[in-house]
Design a protein that fits this description.
The chain contains six helices and 14 strands. It is an alpha/beta fold and 210 residues long. The chain has one domain: Class I glutamine amidotransferase (GATase) domain (Rossmann fold), CATH 3.40.50. The longest helix has 13 residues. It is globular, with a radius of gyration of 16 Å.
């Protein structure tokens, strides 16, 4: 098993790599900006911290990276995990600082959180409990409704097809926490900061055979 974490300058990679190393069970974890490493990987992870446009520009700015991602993830159907902005990039469009084209792997848009009262701050920072739309996904088998996970974000993913939303949280209304289809999975929260629940999700992802 070879796990590739894509380094496109977004930061926060070491903590994600350390979390994967804890559950890799003999697999190798590589932080890389080399499309050839992505092509060789069995599991591909796209972390993300920052603005949608900056993160997208970082990925597409690496020569050959989008081609390697398209081939490995879309054509070869290797398991893919997007974390935070890495999840958001799977959408059709991001609305931060104007409209920015996403990967369009899971149709939908990424828009700013807009809680109706000042009791709910933006950015949303902290722990929230998961509410499952579907607990049947194999990666989520060891995670229970009500388990808390850690968020840091100002924007949220609104999928066109409700079937692609696997879990939500309540933050002055429903907010997407996990999206997925086929071999694609994305978390708005940070598994690497979500203690045993996050590690359980990462371990489930590495065992997943979509």
């Amino acid at each position: 098993m070879k796990i590739a974490l894509i380094d496109y300058g977004s930061g926060n990679l070491r903590s994600a790599a350390k979390a994967f190393e804890r559950v890799a069970d003999g697999g190798t974890v590589t932080v890389t900006a080399d499309p050839k490493e992505v092509a060789r990987a069995t599991h591909i992870v796209l972390p993300g911290v920052g603005a949608f446009r900056d993160c997208r520009d970082g990925v597409v700015g690496i020569p050959g990276m989008m081609e390697a991602l398209t081939r490995s993830v879309i054509e070869d159907k290797k398991p893919f995990l997007g974390i935070c902005v890495g999840m958001q990039l799977m959408a059709t469009v991001g609305r931060e600082f104007g409209n920015t084209e996403g990967f369009n792997w899971i149709p939908g848009e990424v828009t700013r959180l807009n809680p109706p009262t000042g009791d709910f701050k933006v950015p949303h920072i902290g722990w929230n409990d998961l509410q499952f739309d579907s607990s049947a996904h194999p990666v989520l088998k060891s995670i229970l409704p009500g388990n808390d996970v850690y968020f840091v974000h100002s924007f949220a993913f609104y999928a066109e097809d409700p079937k692609h939303v696997l879990a939500r949280i309540d933050y002055a209304g429903p907010v997407t926490a996990i999206v997925g289809r086929d071999n694609l999975l994305g978390t708005q929260f940070h598994p690497e900061k979500s203690q045993h629940v996050g590690l359980a999700l990462l371990a489930g992802f590495l065992k997943w055979k979509p």
